[in-house]
Amino acid sequence: MNIRRWGLxxxxxxxxxxxxxxxxxxxxxxxxxxxxxxxxxxxxPSDPKEALVAxxxxxxxxxxxxxxxxxxxxxxxxxHKPSNSAQMTMKIDDGSGSTMGLDMVYIESESWVKVxxxxxxxxxxxxxxxxxxxxxxxxxxxxxxxxxxDLTKPDPGDSATMIKAITEVQKxxxxxxxxxxxxxxxxDSDALDQDLIKALGAQAKSLPFTAKLDxxxxxxxxxxSIPAAGETKAHEIKVAYADYGTAxxxxxxxxxxxxxxxxxxxxxxx
Length: 270
Known about the structure:
- By secondary structure, the protein is α+β, with helices and mostly antiparallel strands.
- It has a single domain, classed as Clam (outer membrane lipoprotein receptor (LolB), chain A).
- Helices cover about 20% and strands about 30% of the residues.
- The protein has six helices and twelve strands.
- The chain has a twelve-stranded mixed sheet.
- The longest helix is centred in the first third of the chain and has 17 residues.
């Protein structure tokens, strides 16, 4: 069983982000976050697109929580650069009646994944023994081709990429915006993979979106409206962010809950 592209992309972003390098203390980071928040509140650009572009800058600092939802995928997690850690839980439903759950943890150079295959577990040898266990991953066994994304960017929602593709936008209220973006040239996003963009055809040039900023001008929500195309039904891709500068560190799984990853797991990640 292969994880669909967005699910794999988020897995990669959560577990293999070298941009999460520890530097400075938590206190330093909190102070920096507070200072940047005050500065942002006083300097939100009046131009709608400039405001949205600026709203993604805090994401680059790698200290926030997030939720996401798309066609058959929901998830939530955190990125915590001060401790060099990230965590994510995800549910994948392909509409066939079977679901998969993932719980992923990254701390320093180590990573773990807990997989809930649901009914599919009965069809995979050895899967039952892995139930409720965190599998310790050997990154050397994961093919680079399967993780073909820019791992220096800690944002699993690719919001900055989407916002740069905006072609028209208007402010609709305090901290609220709507408009359209041209996704036809987007090549490095997991939320909008190339198969989906190709299926959308000309529709990809004018995808409707809405966005919300918090009081400090930081992105709090981005929603893309994806029309029906080919085998893809109409749906929304939604990413939300919170706790800028105040996310908590991911916790290492308890030793009695950890096993080494199985070969089946590495096959799934191809």
